[in-house]
Amino acid sequence: MVYRFKLVSDEVSNFSREIEIDSENTFLQLRNSILESVGYTKDELDSFFLCGDDWEREEEITLQDMGNSTSDCDVWIMDDTHVSELVEEEGQKLIFEFDYFTQRCFFMELKEMIPNRTLIEPLCSIKRGNPPRQRIDMDEFEKKLDAKAQTVVEDIDLDSFDDSNFNEEELEEGFDIMSM
Fold first, then answer.
1. Does the pLDDT value for residue 162 go beyond 60?
2. CB of 51 within 8 A of CB of 60?
3. Whether the predicted pLDDT of 30 surpasses 70
């Protein structure tokens, strides 16, 4: 069976890719096909995440075992995990996080399951737009964070935090460690 995934980015509105892969291929083969389709190098750590309907991250499929999972959680390694083991129905959502530091990612959805068809190697069947850059300039990233933080600060009503209802004695009593 062949799976057809659509990938989009929240950074570039006109970007998309469609990747077709045999259901018995591994997540490593899917990863490599995605990276090749966008012209990224394969020297970075990245992960897939199975997601719920609202894109909340659930299971992680990692490039390599980082040794930081709890014993009651399964560790899914890309090279050891066939796509069909974890992807089971059309509409299933995944995230491919290609930049751990800034948590930049592609949003993926299984658009179609094509029975009675096989592929030896995954292929990119549709390319639209240019992908976001693989590595982001940290100065640029910090400026974006600062701009977002400024927007949050501007949205806070600082007038509601006036000192007219402030009782200094209550505050001192509440934090007197010696009285405990």
1. no
2. no
3. yes
Find where tokens 């995944």 sit. 94
Residues 6 and 95 in one domain: yes
DSSP 37-80: HHT--S-S--EEEEE-TT--EEEEEESS--S-S-TTS--EEGGG
Q: Which residues of 21-33 are buried (b: 16+ CB within 10 A; e: fewer)?
A: bbbebbbbbbbbb
Cα(89)–Cα(92) distance, rounded to whole angstroms? 6
Mean pLDDT, range 148-167, rounded to an integer: 61
Q: Does residue 133 lie in a domain region?
A: no
Would the CA dihedral through 75, 31, 64, 134 be positive or negative? negative
Virtual CA dihedral for 127, 132, 134, 137, nearest 10 degrees? Answer: 160
Residue-wise pLDDT for 52-79, tens only, equals 999 999 999 998 877 665 555 678 999 9
Output DSSP code: residue 60. Answer: E
Same domain, 23 and 46: yes
CATH number, domain at 83?
A: 3.10.290.30
d(CA 58, CA 167): 45
Query: What is the tally of structural domains in the chain?
Result: 2
pLDDT for the residue 142 = 72
55 and 85 together in one domain: yes
To the nearest whole number, what is the mean pLDDT of the chain?
85
